[in-house]
Specification:
The structure is a homodimer of 366-residue chains.
Chain A lengths: L1 E13 L2 H4 L10 E6 L2 H4 L2 H11 L3 E5 L8 H14 L3 E6 L1 H13 L21 E5 L11 E6 L4 E6 L7 E4 L9 H19 L6 H17 L8 H21 L3 H13 L3 H18 L3 H10 L3 H12 L7 H11 L14 H12 L5
Parallel strand pairs in A: 1-8, 2-3, 2-4, 4-5, 5-8
Antiparallel strand pairs in A: 6-7
Chain lengths: 366, 366
Amino acid sequence: MNFSVFLPTNVIVGRGCVRARGAELQPLGSHALIVTGKSSRANGALADLCAALSKNQQRYTVFDRVTPNPTLACVREGIALCKAVGADFVVGVGGGSPMDAAKAIAILAVETRTDGEVFAGNYGARALPMAHIPTTAGTGSEVTPYAILTNDFARTKTSITSPALFPKLAFLDGAYCDDLPPRITKNTAMDAFSHAAESMLKQVSSPASEMCAKESLRILYPLLKALERPAKEARDALLWASCLAGMAIAQTGTTFVHGMGYFLTYDYGVDHGRANGLLLGETLRLFEENGVPAVGEICAACGASVGEICATLSDLCGARETVPREKCAEYAARAMQTKNIRACKFAPTEEDILRIFTKSLIGEEA
Amino acid sequence: MNFSVFLPTNVIVGRGCVRARGAELQPLGSHALIVTGKSSRANGALADLCAALSKNQQRYTVFDRVTPNPTLACVREGIALCKAVGADFVVGVGGGSPMDAAKAIAILAVETRTDGEVFAGNYGARALPMAHIPTTAGTGSEVTPYAILTNDFARTKTSITSPALFPKLAFLDGAYCDDLPPRITKNTAMDAFSHAAESMLKQVSSPASEMCAKESLRILYPLLKALERPAKEARDALLWASCLAGMAIAQTGTTFVHGMGYFLTYDYGVDHGRANGLLLGETLRLFEENGVPAVGEICAACGASVGEICATLSDLCGARETVPREKCAEYAARAMQTKNIRACKFAPTEEDILRIFTKSLIGEEA
């Protein structure tokens, strides 16, 4: 036994929790920069947050120009607004993109870096205090120390990591997910499922991370088969399971499934969760073929074999994107250079990675 | 679903972790008050801590006059020393008593209260920052917001509760437990087991607290049968399981088992963990008889029936203390007035409580 557990976010769960427990926002500061996309107006999250802040007599400014897979330009715009209005804390509201943008704004607002330095690591211990309100059940970003941004230098998405990126507060209200369309529900659920499974495949996986990951898999897997129109209870369970998967990767990081998927997102605009869902099945097969016991633990938590898990993910993905074979070869070579290829319980060769790409995307051996 | 999870302590686990990860103490302050009992010299914890602090160029003062079931007088003495030397953070090293004394010192050093006000609640958000190093596997105090002290006004033990009492850091090194005598190993293991089981019996028990509690029970129960001379792996597992049980009660609090046991500790000097072990079995029977489903979940996690759990605890307790029947009656009446009689999944009558006392201590019906 040799591990650590650090999950400092105060996670508040329940329908109506933003209004009921909004006083918890009080200690964060006097003026909030609310970082969000377009959907938080429709799902009610933004209205609940603004009501809570007003009740606390806290001021707020809304920055709602976050687009999927946020760029550094978007983050810079948020930082400029944050400084112009004198905001002293940040609230991220939305799916992974607004939350990741909010996290990048919170840390880069206090630690000035050029675009070329943003992904160079070694961040200090400071960031503006943050609260997060996820409105999809997938990213788990509300409890992780990561912010993932589009990295045009490397033509992929890249993470910033710092303990300063742990939000102080997270509000999980399943009601904000009730009206999500089936495609988003499916993609984000695959993201959460992939987080939990990938966490189990990392060398640093620990008794603490595995407790969170297995509980997440146990809740998620049966729900994956009924995502067309989930009942309220299922929405709540999906949101909690995605948070648990976030707690797992907060301790372990992700695997090359994420590293590989980022290429598909950058070049083909494949939704992030869907990219993970496309690649996870063959990755599990690779680990299984190479005798990694964690695969058995993943299967036990799901109550399913690798074959059954692959079929479930395949159903959720539906028709595949067309990615040429030569692109797969290029990605395989580049994947070998990414951060999260390292420290997995099985070290893949470039051929292994190429085989995952081709079997997943073209349906054939490399 | 309606709950929250707040477990902000950075928990570092592994043999040698205090020396290997001692740099984590650096941000806590410049001068540590080390609060400990006598055994931390023999088990090596104090030497490891002092070495880590010296390496960090942090000063320290040792307050080693903590006795079991710390009194307010002991806490006052620690506060006086803390102020005299100008300590700006606190490290608790030992079993529950030094850790609870350290927590009380850390909060009362910044919030002055008369003895009569100490247990009146409503503490502010401030305390001196703390690290904790448990040297028994029982209390879980290293991850809870509670400090339990002897309360001479009420002739029992009483808790102080405040989020400010969450330690910043906890180091869990099973080596400090290797040479514990069987009696202490057994009593502390019963304490941890009782925390996990009691947490499941509270109304506020949640998906998060139950995850921690069940994992703790799953690890602990098989180990309860082999506590005479545990192997190193078992020592490590006991320490982690007691931490998990602490995480569970940090979210839910304890039940009347604790409230009842404190009387036995105050009047008869019964070890705290042993007091819980004496009373838990009959308490589980009461909840089972009254159809509380959580008992089934406790049994499933243990892989044992209530009868088997009772027998295991009874073996661990051995010969009972002699407590007169009229004392049991007095305790039953007083127990009805304690904090943790409230909000359990079954609300006991005074007769129920009396029956638990007499069956547990005298072996007969009331």
